[in-house]
């Protein structure tokens, strides 16, 4: 049995499912598998909030259409939760609690049997408080349960011609804030403006770390030499988003750098 067939056979007995769908490669693969296994009894749901970066919603819509799954939007209000705004190491737990409460309610009211996430096997070895929230709400993780890690996720996404197969990871904008820095709509919007300005310059793999009036720009290894050789456009673009001081990190972007700093 092929890996795709194995995953489909694990999803099919569920009968119906709501997929927590960001449009990233992990949730896109789960959406594609759910569509194949469940047909019109699969629904991809994207949560919209101030923490969603510009362009992510359009990308999710494109992927949903391409893999043939019904797609719905909901609004989440994690910013109304004081525990989320406080932004300690459990921020993702409070965010996912908001998400899974809403998805669970939607599934129940619309007759879907369960909620699926895109968590993969590599997530089990990382700091993922969101997995605790998932466990509390009965969320299933087809990729993690089957031992599918990130490299295999991308391979299977290519096999199924999922448009986001090569998409760089794009976690919520709040992940750019160091732990202990209050999450506010203004800070999220400022980060988004800065990152969109850098994308307009042609940078694809990047993060703008929000350190008050200081922005630390991290760029992917392939693009970092260009940023360091011609820093002025990068600095000007980020300053235009409202930062007073801009520093380009001489080390390439690495996921979880704020976790390491914390």
Would you mind describing this structure in some detail?
With 262 residues, this protein is of the alpha/beta class. It folds into two domains: 3-159, HUPs (Rossmann fold); 173-261, 2-Layer Sandwich (Alpha-Beta Plaits), CATH 3.30.70. It has helices at residues 3-11, 25-38, 56-67, 82-86, 91-110, 129-136, 142-145, 150-159, 185-200, 224-229, 231-239, 257-261; strands at residues 17-20, 42-48, 70-75, 115-116, 206-211, 214-219, 245-248. A hairpin with a 2-residue loop joins strand 5 (206-211) and strand 6 (214-219). The longest helix has 20 residues, at 91-110. The protein is globular.
How does the SSE layout of this entry go?
Elements: H1 3-11, E1 17-20, H2 25-38, E2 42-48, H3 56-67, E3 70-75, H4 82-86, H5 91-110, E4 115-116, H6 129-136, H7 142-145, H8 150-159, H9 185-200, E5 206-211, E6 214-219, H10 224-229, H11 231-239, E7 245-248, H12 257-261
Parallel strand pairs: 1-2, 1-4, 2-3, 6-7
Antiparallel strand pairs: 5-6
Helix pairs in contact: 1-2, 2-3, 2-8, 5-6, 9-11
Average pLDDT reading: 95
Q: What's the CATH H-level superfamily name of the largest domain?
A: HUPs
What strand line-up does the widest sheet have? 3-2-1-4
The fraction of residues assigned to DSSP E strands is 5-15%
Secondary-structure-based class equals alpha/beta
Low-confidence stretches: none
- CATH names the topology of the largest domain as Rossmann fold
CATH class of the largest domain: Alpha Beta
- Biggest beta-sheet profile: 4 strands, parallel
CATH architecture type of the largest domain: 3-Layer(aba) Sandwich
The H/E string reads HEHEHEHHEHHHHEEHHEH
């Amino acid at each position: 049995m092929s890996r795709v067939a194995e995953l489909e056979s694990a999803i099919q007995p569920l009968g119906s499912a709501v997929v927590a769908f960001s449009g990233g490669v992990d949730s896109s693969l789960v959406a594609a598998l759910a569509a194949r296994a469940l047909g019109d009894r699969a629904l991809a749901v994207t949560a919209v909030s101030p923490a969603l970066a510009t362009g992510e919603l359009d990308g999710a819509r494109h992927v949903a259409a391409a893999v043939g799954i019904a797609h719905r939007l909901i609004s989440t209000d994690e910013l109304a939760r004081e525990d989320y705004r406080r932004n300690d190491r459990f921020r993702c737990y409070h965010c996912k609690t908001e998400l899974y409460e809403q998805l669970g309610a939607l599934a129940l009211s619309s007759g879907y049997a369960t909620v699926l996430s895109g968590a993969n096997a590599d997530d089990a070895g990382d700091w993922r408080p969101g997995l605790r929230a998932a466990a509390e709400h009965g969320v299933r993780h087809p990729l993690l349960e089957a031992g599918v890690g990130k490299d295999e996720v991308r391979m299977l996404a290519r096999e199924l011609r999922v448009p986001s197969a090569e998409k760089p990871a794009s976690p919520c904008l709040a992940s750019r804030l160091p732990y202990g820095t209050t999450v506010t709509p203004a800070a999220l919007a400022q980060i988004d403006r800065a990152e969109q300005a850098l994308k307009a310059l042609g940078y694809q793999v990047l993060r703008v770390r929000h350190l008050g009036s200081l922005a630390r720009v991290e760029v992917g290894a392939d693009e970092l030499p260009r940023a360091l050789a011609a820093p002025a456009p990068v600095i000007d673009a980020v300053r235009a988003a409202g930062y007073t001081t801009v520093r380009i990190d001489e080390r390439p972007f690495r996921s979880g750098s704020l976790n390491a700093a914390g």
